[in-house]
Amino acid sequence: MPDRSRAVSASDSYDVVVLGAGPVGQTVAGRSRAHGLSVALVERELVGGECSYWGCIPSKAMLRPVIAVSDARRVDGAREAVTGPVDAGAVFRRRDRYVTGWDDSGQADGLAGMGIDVIRGHGRIEGARRVVVATADDEQRVLTARHAVVVCTGSTAALPDLPGIAEAHAWTNRAATDSSDVPRRLAIVGDGGVAVEMATAWQGLGSSVTLLSRLHALLPRMEAFVGEMVADGLKEAGVDVRSGVSVVELHRPGGTGPVTLVLDDRSEVTADEVLFAVGREPLTGDIGLDTVGLAPGSWLDVDDSCQVRGVDDGWLYAAGDVNHRALLTHQGKYQARMIGNLIGARAAGQPVDTSPWGAHVATADIDAVPQVFFCDPEAASVGLTTDQAQRAGHRVRAVDVDLERVPGALLYADGYRGRARIVVDLDHEYLLGATFVGPGMAELLHSATVAVAGRVPIDRLWHVVPCFPTISEVWLRLLEAYRG
Amino acid sequence: MPDRSRAVSASDSYDVVVLGAGPVGQTVAGRSRAHGLSVALVERELVGGECSYWGCIPSKAMLRPVIAVSDARRVDGAREAVTGPVDAGAVFRRRDRYVTGWDDSGQADGLAGMGIDVIRGHGRIEGARRVVVATADDEQRVLTARHAVVVCTGSTAALPDLPGIAEAHAWTNRAATDSSDVPRRLAIVGDGGVAVEMATAWQGLGSSVTLLSRLHALLPRMEAFVGEMVADGLKEAGVDVRSGVSVVELHRPGGTGPVTLVLDDRSEVTADEVLFAVGREPLTGDIGLDTVGLAPGSWLDVDDSCQVRGVDDGWLYAAGDVNHRALLTHQGKYQARMIGNLIGARAAGQPVDTSPWGAHVATADIDAVPQVFFCDPEAASVGLTTDQAQRAGHRVRAVDVDLERVPGALLYADGYRGRARIVVDLDHEYLLGATFVGPGMAELLHSATVAVAGRVPIDRLWHVVPCFPTISEVWLRLLEAYRG
């Protein structure tokens, strides 16, 4: 039996040391504690991490009022009740409440209440099973980990190395989610989830948004029709969507006033702020990776149990963005649950199951990653796209259904537009992936995630009856389209 | 091979004769046609049935604007944009559009385009495999069915035999969904889905609704907490919810002016209209059941393939409300798909599979019936309640989660209140049932339906990752609560 008394002591020796107290690190810590292990959780910034303060939480807090008003405006009889614009001030106060004013004491207290030692400072690995923390009061604490060190330091926004980028004071996801002034004109550079969500939010809050996409399609990791419909939605909301353009330099003399973006076609865009949402970099530059033979600043290469490859004795794990398997809070938390259970089982000498879909392996990272973008229309997908499935060597058939064919969709929103696709493995007759775009799709996705991760056979899906008249009846149309 | 040419002729001999052209009858007809069979579809009223014109479609058309406005009002920043009431006139026009002005020619044309003979008139069975239709122009058409007669005549609202009921001109679901005047005061008698949905709709459209429930709980077929939360929601919307009361007589002298309801506690309720939503009766009183040894006016007792018991040679089927398995459009359509495939397979001499979850059996009727009530909060469930599971002899554990614990729920609606329950079969470690109540639950339910009907093991559900921050993350809390 592990010694539970150690967990609440200030000992420098722990069963598990976790670097980074975002949702992923917290979940590793919590699961480890649930297995009776002592845990130190090191955080150099805010307990709760990027997701709680500059990611999912504030962005959704800002998006939901915009979507709720759009949803009401799409329904005859409700539209007439909506006479005003979204109240940006009220939205910012809402956002502030959900990020608890960027005060992390509540989350820290919660962890302490679970018997987890939260250590504030910058943690660096110093050889096997050893972490040195430079604490806020300039002390050094040396932590040793009997069973595991888990890196959950996450990622940060990448900024391109462009002329003028420094004096442009460009926004990243941070300013885009913690600002409380609505820029009259906002330029957004990017084509992924942050770009489309922030375009939706800020346009809804009153900015005139210009979205500059290097590619000709938005949301390039989803099926192509998703980006097309999301672009249409953004345009209808008033966003100036420009695709196939790159920023080559920026001008903001003195770092104040409007910023001018020069594009590769030599045209210019002038805005009051510019947001770059062009990708993420791992926060591994200064965590001592070199002391264990790994390259600082690299994504950490892990196996399906999130053990870092190339490190002896299996004491080093990495979960969340930092392992680059799936840069999504929910997927990191999933990895964290598996890791916590794996470390707990190993510590107790219990058997572990790292076969696919076993109790100690993050199989869904490969086969069943869900994602929702809370733009308007909402975009949601799980598993493999048609292309991904084919490239992986599966023999598949994809079938599409326009959501206008589903009574529940039309009742949800007059003039509903949306589309759904399933990708069926023809050799096994189960789903490899599903994609939905349209208003009100966010919660419908989980039905597909159960089907994909659960490998529910098509034959059985015919017995999974969707309620009439929900949008979920799209499942019937999809099955019918597959039967042909 | 069946003779396809027969299907589009006016022959009186068909492979399949279907009584009732609601969604269920249409689906039987469509599936039978897809198998190459000739089909006559007999309808005495509107092609599309109760659901299209006085049920799901108009009710949801009226409810959605009310819910969309409520949803927006629950979100800071959106609330400020909603200054007016729901526009009842616009809602009625919306409803009229979705019921196509009670004109069924579009649906009839669609069926004709599939090669189905729609025969308008009152059909009566006259001995084995024979149906006589009294047509609109007072002619008689004798139809014979080579393979099957399928009864899909549905149900109608039951009215209690109370003093004064006739002159009260009580509303049933029909007037409640086709009226275009908002009664100043509306009394609703009932405690099920129609009662709570119509209370939600009409209160939202401007009526002062009094809901009179005989029981002490609303929605008695769902877990008890659902009715409690729905009652709370109705009260907050302004509905006067009175439980544990029965109407003993009604007074509406001359059949005009206000109607007074006398309750069993001798108190009185005066309203401008009264809606009775106290149950359904099968529409089997005048379809010739006596000619084949069955009791007119009875629900039709069927096996899991929807063949009517007590009739020789297996030519008589019944699907939808009329067989009383599950009085829900979607469940009737499910039965219809199975029946259509069964009749098609038998006609072609192909093997049939009527084992549980086979291709020709309505297993989900017993184990995995989903239901959504579009009230506010929305109420959704699938499979067995805790009580039902225990009474069926399962060894179960039910776990609950308050939705306030789910970040995605709070982000969806400020001050979110709701609850979820799963009922786990302890011997098999899969779900027997799930229940959700709260705003925005309607589409989330289908994830549970996949899990219940798919018998996805709890161990695998841990790999079914819900997106952060969706409400679907309640699944994590439920699994954690089950693990304990």
From TrEMBL, chains A, B:
Residues 14-330 form the FAD/NAD(P)-binding domain. The keyword Coiled coil does not apply. This is NAD(P)/FAD-dependent oxidoreductase. Its cofactor is FAD. Keywords: FAD, Flavoprotein, NAD. PANTHER family: DIHYDROLIPOYL DEHYDROGENASE, MITOCHONDRIAL (PTHR22912:SF151), DISULFIDE OXIDOREDUCTASE (PTHR22912). Gene3D superfamilies: 3.30.390.30, FAD/NAD(P)-binding domain. It comes from the Bacteria. Coiled coil: none annotated. The keyword Flavoprotein applies. Residues 369-475 form the Pyridine nucleotide-disulphide oxidoreductase dimerisation domain. InterPro entries: Class-I_Pyr_Nuc-Dis_Oxidored, FAD/NAD-bd_sf, FAD/NAD-binding_dom, FAD/NAD-linked_Rdtase_dimer_sf, Pyr_nuc-diS_OxRdtase, Pyr_nucl-diS_OxRdtase_dimer. It holds the Pfam family Pyr_redox_2. Belongs to the class-I pyridine nucleotide-disulfide oxidoreductase family.
